[in-house]
Amino acid sequence: MSKKTWIIFAIIVVAFVGGMMALSESNKINLDSIDINNIIPANDQNGNTEEHTKGTTDSKVVLIEYGDYQCAGCASVNKRINALAEDYNDQLVIVFRNYTIDGHQNALSAAAAAESANLQGKFWEMHNLIYDNQSEWSTAGATERNDLYLSYAKQLGLDETKFTEGKKDTSVRKKIEFDKAVAKKAGLDSTPYFTLNGEKIDYETWSDDAKFRAKIDQVLKDNGIAPPATEKSE
After folding, report:
1. Of 89, 39, 94, 35, which is closest to residue 65 (Cα–Cα)?
2. Largest CA distance in the chain
3. Which of 46, 41, 31, 63 is nearest to 176 (CA)?
4. Is the dihedral of CA 59, 61, 62, 63 positive or negative?
5. What does each C-alpha distance from 197 to 8, 14, 106, 147, 222 come to in angstroms?
6. What is the pTM of this model?
7. Which of 33, 61, 70, 81 pairs as cysteine with 107 (C-beta 3.0–4.6 A)?
8. Between the CA of residue 73 and those of 62, 206, 214, 232, what are the distances in Å?
9. What DSSP string describes 65-105?
10. Which residues of the chain have pLDDT under 70?
11. Three-state SS for 181?
12. pLDDT tens-digit map of 161-178
């Protein structure tokens, strides 16, 4: 190889490496200016996707759940979280964020299905169906699980083509990746993982409905908000 050819080759290699480094840097999620303990506004890093919330979004008390759709504990607690959302609708805001566990083979596809449904305004409906039917899709192969997700989309009256295409949408990928980065910054060590105004709720508390509600009530009072006086859902 001539000296000229070597020079050209070296320039190409340097340009390629530089381009890959620039691409990697551009895809890096920067959370320096993000308040992870409050509702995070839609931005380019999260695919311009608004947070998934239930309750009063301007509340001073924010309960955040980080969940993995293939996590059995997350599925088991989901109905309780829905009950909390109903009972504390006027006092509290509940936020759900994705944390797909690498060892769960179908967790990412399930999160993509929920986020795709969100593009058609049906996030919570798909969220609940995925958890309710976890035993159907959690160990299924790719074709079977996708057929199951599509059956849930049909059940919700979604546009099937848009739903299928939406699972591969860039905004969906960005939202899932962003949520996972936020979860890591929050110090997540398992799922489900809860924080209440930035404080981690330990397993002993969130696994016991009475203790969980008592903790929420106390934080509400600390922030000048009266807990709901109506009878709580069982």
Report:
1. 94
2. 85
3. 46
4. negative
5. 57, 47, 31, 39, 11
6. 0.87
7. 70
8. 21, 11, 21, 22
9. EEE-TT-HHHHHHHHHHHHHHHHTTTT-EEEEEE---TT-T
10. 1-27, 230-234
11. helix
12. 999 999 999 999 999 999
Residues 6+ apart with CB under 8 A from 185: 31, 36
- Crossing angle of helices 72-87 and 123-132, rounded to 10°: 140
Structure tokens at 210: 């009475």
Residue 6 identity: W
Cα–Cα distance measured from residue 204 to residue 78, given in angstroms and rounded to the nearest whole number: 17
CB 186 within 8 A of CB 193: yes
d(CA 21, CA 112): 27
* CA–CA dist 79, 75 (Å, integer): 8
